[in-house]
Amino acid sequence: MKRQLQVARGVIKTPSDYQLGAMTSLYLGLKVFDSPSMRVVRLSSLVKLGNAEFTENDIIQMERDMVKAMGWRLNPPTPNCFLQQYLVLLPTLNESTKTQIEEKALEALEIAVANERFYSMKPSVLGCAALLVALDRYLEAQKRTIPGCGAEMISLWQLRTFLYNMKHIAKLDHTSVLISQTTSMLERALKPLATTNASEPATVSNNSSKDSTYMFESRGSNGASSSPTNVAFQ
Questions:
Q1: Is 39 helix (H, G, I), strand (E, B) or coil?
Q2: CB of 134 within 8 A of CB of 87?
Q3: Chain centroid to CA 18: how far?
């Protein structure tokens, strides 16, 4: 935010511009942690915070002026940025299901950014690994959740389509050594959290559709568990 205000001096000419620039800087900074399903701060909230001295369009215009003044030298894409793009590749999932998967993936990313072992990894790889771990945890919970609670039961076709999309659109193969190892590292980092959640009582699903029941196998070439990379019907 400090850097943004320094660069934005060329576009701030009045005291009201300064207030607008401060709000816009805050808005730009928060976008790093933003996602379509979980807005950190909405534009309407910033307008209220500014006592209606400016409009949403004013913030958007100031944002354009500031990023142009900075030559678009903003933060590089974060793992969360890639995660949002990968979520688009999940086929025919309702918003409730995608939100639950996104929350699990963001939980994994929070663990990763606080662990120095992940510092040297590409954000695109981390975003992919987090989503694979999230899918694995969602599908595992799906086995013991009562259907009809707003969440969609993911079928084998949907999972295969997603992995195909990741390989041919995102150019990330879930069977590669890099993705498998990163996913395995994330799973190990999440184990203490998973152990805590495992103590919660499970509910029994009455869904008899075999399309929604899976068995996950640990057959990675490196001997590590590999999220939903090896899936077979039970």
A1: coil
A2: no
A3: 33
Assign 3-state DSSP to the chain and report helix, strand, coil percentages, each to 5: 60, 5, 35
Using CA atoms, how far residue 192 sits from 2, 29, 76, 111, 132, in Å, is: 37, 31, 31, 11, 18
Of the candidates 209, 229, 202, the residue with the CA atom closest to the CA atom of residue 218: 229
Distance CA 123, CA 79 (A): 4
- Calculate the alpha carbon distances from 94 to 100, 150, 164 in Å: 10, 9, 20
Q: What is the pTM of this model?
A: 0.61
Q: What is the pLDDT of residues 85-109, one digit of tens each?
A: 999 998 877 888 888 899 999 999 9
Instruction: State the residue for tokens 């998967």.
Output: 101
Contact between 109 and 127 (Cβ < 8 Å): yes
Residue 6: what are its φ and ψ, rounded to 5°? Answer: -65, -45
Q: Which amino acid appears at position 71 of this protein?
A: G
CB 112 within 8 A of CB 126: yes
Token pair, residue 91, equals: 């086929």
Which of 61, 195, 175, 191 has the alpha carbon at shortest distance from 128?
175
